[in-house]
Amino acid sequence: MVRIPKxxxxxxxxxxxxxxxxxxxxxxxxxxxxxxxxxxxxxxxxDGDGTWKIRFSPMHEGEWSYVTHSNMPELDRQKGxxxxxxxxxxxxxxxxxxxxxxxxxxxxEAQLIVNDGWFPHxxxxxxxxxxxxxxQQPSEKDFNSYFDILxxxxxxxxxxxxxxxxxQKSITxxxxxxxxxxxxxxxxxxxxxxxxxxxxxRWESNLAHAKKLDMFYAxxxxxxxxxxxPREWNNHPYNVKNGGWLESDPGTQVCWQNLFDxxxxxxxxxxxxxxxxTLARLACFSNVIWEVGAENANLAVLPxxxxxxxxxxxxxxxxxxxxxxxxxxxxxxxxxxxxxGDTTHHPLMVCAHGNxxxxxxxxxxxxxxxxxxxxxxxxxxxxxxxxxxxxxxGEMTSSNNGDYERERRMYWIAMTSGYIMGRSDRHFSPIxxxxxxxxxxxxxxxxxxxxxxxxxxxxxVEKNVRFWRMEPAYxxxxxxxxxxxxxxxxxxxxxYFVNGGSAKLNxxxxxxxxxxxxxxxxxxxxxxxAGENEFCAPKADDPRESDWxxxxxxxxxxxxxx
Length: 562
Hints:
The chain has 3 domains: 3-85, Sandwich (Immunoglobulin-like); 93-464, TIM Barrel; 471-554, Jelly Rolls (Sandwich), CATH 2.60.120.
């Protein structure tokens, strides 16, 4: 009997020799997978050359059997079985209601996420070749090389933003955009009735490669704010002039009101069909996350003088997102995590059904001086912690490209404020050849040093800190450039000194460690008696090297966790 490890992928292929006008819509295929643990229904999909496939990722060990159901006799009542054996991975990202602000894995253990953020962006049109608006779209090899570099430097999450490529008039790589069959690459036109097999095969390869690296990918499904900008809406596949199904809003050159009309039958038809197909092909990858939208922070918050057509009740937007999040949940047998993409801090969006974790941007209205900005980042964590779900920054917008000392500080501020940081806004292809384009942009010898900092952070925290049992402790420190989180019983503390200094804490008899966040090395260790103690960060001659991490554990600290 075929053996499939838990959370890996079983695939069965079936051939139907008939000719169909449209095999994507003329044939229905599903399969029921049954074990002692339960019964799960999955959709099949057409994969070209008269072949249909069924994929399934077993979540329980033991024997499984399946039977197909189809309107085509050749595909109906096909049966098979396999044995699900012990896992070779830790499984998908999950949530744990006991510790709702942190991610967990299918094996029940906590997972520290180090996020690269929203990428790739297309260019805005600048002076360097790789910033030209019409630069070559990243290939399958490009993405795999990109994942290799990130994973070797501690990063384990990337968030997709491919719809911004609607800024480009032409398609240079049909496997990158769009999910619908391309009928005119030069003019960005699609066949909305048929899907792009090159697109799906490419993303299957990229997801499989990322999975081997234990990296999670948030796959952008439905929308980003490109629809509110005339340049991007003009090239967007949803646009009826490009073969899509949505008309421009009356009197405008954008599509905003029409998109969020949840009663739009055409939208339900084509988006629903697309989600069915996408989930059938990709939901089996245990490292995929469903990013329902992206950058929708602009909803109902942009100044009217800038985009009067964009303003609408947030209730209407939430209704649309909730509808599609439920649709995804109904057709994804594995319950992969979903995120709306950018909720700002509107409770209706943050707390809505289907927004399993918060994906947003860093605070927009912050002072530009570093210390005030660090304070704003700390307060951002305080704002979101109350919603009791993980929070991930898709991109930071502080214009700190190349300022890796500041960026390191923001990652540690986020860590000790109970959320997950993301990289800055990068409008260029992720990789040029085998080199990160960012390295070329800033004339760097090798990988940007921020990745060394992130690797050091992940290595120490994963090995030494029960971070999932901790929460921000703003009342413990008064300094604006000091961040603290602690375990609820006071057995463990993690403090980040943004610019050195000292802190007084009332702690039990404890051992402590000073960690150098630039190298990941232990600088000094020590012990204190129970009571109020003052902890003074090591001195630094260079202000760029003045930040330090303090980790305190009670002497009777119990290593057993959840």
